[in-house]
Backbone:
């Protein structure tokens, strides 16, 4: 029988890697599910809800993991937290694989590590894509937070006492988070515009009823990689983009920035001068804060006020909607894990050549094995 353990996350992480729904799924697959008492509480999942679906609840993390085949986590555990697992156990989570100082000691324990953020973005793996499931919620929450901070109403209201104008909301970066931000901002009645460097986004923005604002030159036509991501843009493009943004942003009430380029610091799209051109009371929510920020003034985890404009640099926005974020994340994990289980024998049967396994496997037998994590050859 496969034993799956789940333990509580640290104080700063309200999400949990198991829900009562996924417990049921694992039990149906013939697994034993062990959870540390209280692990789901911050996502509003009480111990009794897990027990009702067949999980065993343990008072401590150490008891829950002892002898388990698999440890499911949201964030990377420390080496001590995996010590009780079987020597060749799997550890699956958002492991932040580029953070070597944390990954190396964990890999050295000999456990097999899977980083969910490396899930290939192929059609078959869409239901296992944690970046999408969490970014979607972040895009939603950014708009709701901005609406709550903004000291004016968002929709136009025509009343006997006068007209309240609609708020102007600008979304920069139209990936998964940006698309949900546009949809949410539209639902709240804002006048929404959006920008991106990938041409494919133009139609997506229009289909959500927002206005597309971008420098559409020859470089723009080539800005998407085969994997669907943005390329870093040339200094010439960046200059044209900055002029366009400068003109547009001064009239905006709320700006949500989500622009990212894989493996690089976030592109700087909003300068201090642009912030100074905005009206006092305007709000910028910078979802790229953890990767350096799209705005020059962003500080991760803080709200900065500059000449009456507030710039919010949230960290872990999905964690502020933990009930949904945990539900979707746990489902992503369960869908992934199901592909590794032999349903008849009720044993682990990992296909080591499967793209979703090779894509997410970062360490095995004490070694870091993922190609993206190998030391660069000295030139
Ligand atoms: P991301 O988080 O890497 O980036 C967010 C957005 O920022 C992207 O749209 C990017 O084009 C944009 N951006 C980068 N530099 C910019 C700049 N200088 N100015 C303005 N915008 C800039 O992207 P993401 O949300 O992870 O999604 C990227 C793409 O992958 C999308 O097309 C998405 O639909 C696709 N996707 C595919 C799958 C799948 O097939 N399984 C899953 C998820 C996402």
Residues:
């Amino acid at each position: 029988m496969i034993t799956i353990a789940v333990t509580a996350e640290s104080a700063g992480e309200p999400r949990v890697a198991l829900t009562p729904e996924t417990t049921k799924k694992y039990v149906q697959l013939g697994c034993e599910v062990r959870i540390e008492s209280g692990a789901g509480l911050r996502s509003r999942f009480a111990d009794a809800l897990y027990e009702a679906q067949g999980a065993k609840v343990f008072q401590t993390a150490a008891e829950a993991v002892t002898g388990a085949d698999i440890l499911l986590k949201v964030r990377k555990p420390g080496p001590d937290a995996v010590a009780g697992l079987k020597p060749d156990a799997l550890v699956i989570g958002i492991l932040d694989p580029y953070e070597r100082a944390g990954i190396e000691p964990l890999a050295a324990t000999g456990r097999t590590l899977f980083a969910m953020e490396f899930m290939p973005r192929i059609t078959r793996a869409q239901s296992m894509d944690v970046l999408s499931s969490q970014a979607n919620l972040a895009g939603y929450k950014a708009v709701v937070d901005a609406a709550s901070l903004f000291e004016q109403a968002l929709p136009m209201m025509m009343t006997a006492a006068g007209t309240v104008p609609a708020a102007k909301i600008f979304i920069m970066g139209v990936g998964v988070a940006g698309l949900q931000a546009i949809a949410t901002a539209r639902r709240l009645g804002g006048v929404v515009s959006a920008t991106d460097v990938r041409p494919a986004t133009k139609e997506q923005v229009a289909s959500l009823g927002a206005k597309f604002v971008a420098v559409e030159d020859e470089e723009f036509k080539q800005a998407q990689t085969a994997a669907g991501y943005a390329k870093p843009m040339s200094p010439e493009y960046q200059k044209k983009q900055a002029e366009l943004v400068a003109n547009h942003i001064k009239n905006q009430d709320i700006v949500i920035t989500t622009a990212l380029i894989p493996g690089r610091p976030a592109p700087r799209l909003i300068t201090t001068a642009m912030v100074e051109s905005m009206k006092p009371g305007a709000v910028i929510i910078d979802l790229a804060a953890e990767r350096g920020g799209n705005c020059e003034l962003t500080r991760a985890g803080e709200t900065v006020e500059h000449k009456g404009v507030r710039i919010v640099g949230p960290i872990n926005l999905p964690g502020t909607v933990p009930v949904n974020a945990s539900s979707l994340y746990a489902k992503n994990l369960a869908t992934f894990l199901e592909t590794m289980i032999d349903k008849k024998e009720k044993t682990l049967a990992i296909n080591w050549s499967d793209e979703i396994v090779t894509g997410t496997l970062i360490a095995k037998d004490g070694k870091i094995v993922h190609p993206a994590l190998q030391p660069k050859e000295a030139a």
